[in-house]
Amino acid sequence: MKSLVIIAMIATAALAGCSNVTVQRDDTADLSQYRTYMWVETRASENDNSASTTAFADAGIKSSVNSELSKLGWQQVSSNPDVLVGYDILVERSVEQRSDPVYTQPFSRVYYNPYTKRYGTIIYPSRFIGYQVYSEPVREGTITINLVDAKTDKPVWQAWTTERMDNPNITNDQIARSVRDIFKKLDVAAR
After folding, report:
1. Is the dihedral of CA 58, 63, 64, 65 positive or negative?
2. For residue 9, what pLDDT is reported?
3. Burial level of 137, CB count in 10 A (0-12/13-18/19+)?
4. Is the pLDDT of residue 14 over 60?
5. pLDDT band at 170 (very low <50, low <70, confident <90, very high)
6. CA–CA separation, 145 and 163 (whole Å)
7. pLDDT at 5 (0 to 100)
8. Bigger pLDDT: 129 or 45?
9. CA–CA separation, 121 vs 91, rounded Å?
10. Helix count (H) and strand count (E) of the chain?
11. Are 158 and 146 contacting, i.e. CB atoms less than 8 angstroms apart?
């Protein structure tokens, strides 16, 4: 019984650590032909010169993406790339519905046994009486990576993952984990 509980805890921790990655790709593009890339800056519009609200995460994202692309054999260049790489970070506040089971308090009663002339105790265990439903505010961070063919200016691959954030800001560990999960999907597509 104890080993079943331990296995269930490990499985829950493993599933909680996995993020769900969504991929969109151009099926006509052969990702195995791309070997060089260059970063591009994404903006809301052509005239948008405002500072990025996620500027603190720029270095973490670029470092993680560079590392993952390097593992795939891709090389960053400053001119004539095969692919243009861009990213976006979105942090949203939302409300999550939660429910917790509710049980009665266990109680006991004392009785007297006239045959043994002793007192005994009957214990009544707690009983399930329903669920307490409540709303909990949560923050979720979404990281999106885009690959655009530099010669045709056509999007060839895009992937994103959303992860619940426990800290007020997105951390470098969360960024690295999300980028690693995203590029696992590119590794499969590029073969």
Report:
1. positive
2. 42
3. exposed
4. no
5. confident
6. 15
7. 39
8. 129
9. 56
10. 3, 8
11. yes
Q: Using pLDDT thresholds of 50, 70 and 90, give the confidence band for residue 177.
A: confident
CA–CA distance, 11 with 5 (Å, rounded to integer): 10
Collect contacts of 70-74 with beta carbons under 8 A, ≥24 apart. Answer: 71/183, 71/187, 72/183, 72/186, 72/187, 72/190, 73/35, 74/34, 74/35, 74/36, 74/37
Q: How distant, in Å, are the alpha carbons of 1, 11, 122 from that of 15? A: 21, 6, 42
* Number of CB atoms found within 10 A of residue 51's CB: 6
Structure tokens at 63: 């470092």
**Count of other CB atoms within 10 angstroms of residue 83:** 23
pLDDT above 80 for 148:
yes
Strand 75-76, strand 36-39: pairing: parallel
Whether the CB-CB separation of 156 and 83 falls below 8 Å is answered with yes
Structure tokens at 16: 């909680």
pLDDT reported for residue 2: 47
Rounded mean pLDDT of 65-82?
89
Query: What pairing do the DSSP bridges indicate for beta strands 83-103 and 107-113?
Result: unpaired
Q: What ranges make up the beta strands (E) of the chain?
A: 21-25, 36-39, 75-76, 83-103, 107-113, 118-124, 128-149, 154-165
